[in-house]
Design a protein that fits this description.
Length: about 200
């Protein structure tokens, strides 16, 4: 952790110096961006983004060594691309990431709504919840994650998302729990319910 902090501090210094040297080249009308959230993850993301931007512009060859990690991060942020995108030219951007990174926790947030024994119940349960909370769930994606609960067996955990921040997920959960339903903020992981349900029919 100490090494990581030193690296990030160095990257921040380099990024700051780069910003200072290019201010004169910036257009007079600048877009005012909101401040970065006061969390360690947000600060790491900002520093990393600045360093990646610098390398992409001035040292593109240096990104080759971290290409698998870049692909895995892009996949974690964007989620699995639709089938049409996977078949498009350039879709190999998301391919080849290390398996350990592909199964890492999601960088998106979600909400755990219910757990079911069968896929059929998961599909019908999601439809019922969307009908009950259209303002909260109509534009969200449902995902299913298989979990094993000791002494109880296998369950299919129904999640909805994604939410950009934990605060947004908590706000959605608060509204759902006030209506008497279970809800818990979680990492937005698992398989899309549409894909999992289709596979279960075969």
């Amino acid at each position: 952790m100490k090494t990581l902090r030193l690296l990030l501090a160095s990257m921040a210094l380099v990024s700051g110096l780069s910003a200072c040297t290019t201010t004169a080249d910036a257009p007079e009308t600048m877009v005012s961006l909101p401040p970065v959230a006061e969390t360690e993850n947000a600060r790491i993301a900002e520093i990393t983004a600045r360093e990646l931007d610098r390398r992409a512009r001035h040292e593109p060859d240096s990104l080759t060594a971290v290409a698998p990690q870049l692909r895995a991060l892009a996949l974690a942020l964007a989620g699995p691309p639709p089938a049409a995108v996977q078949a498009a030219p350039g879709a190999q951007l998301m391919a080849g990431a290390p398996e350990a990174m592909l199964t890492a926790p999601s960088l998106w947030h979600g909400i755990h709504l219910a757990s079911y024994r069968t896929m059929a119940n998961s599909v019908s349960g999601w439809a019922e919840l969307q009908a009950r909370f259209p303002d909260l769930l109509a534009d969200r994606e449902a995902r299913i994650e298989a979990v094993n609960i000791p002494d109880r067996g296998e369950f299919l955990r129904l999640q909805a998302g994604p939410y950009d921040t934990l605060a947004a997920a908590r706000t959605a959960c608060a509204a759902i729990t006030r209506a008497g339903e279970y809800c818990l903020p979680v990492d937005f992981s698992g398989r899309p319910l549409a894909d999992a349900g289709a596979d279960a029919l075969h």
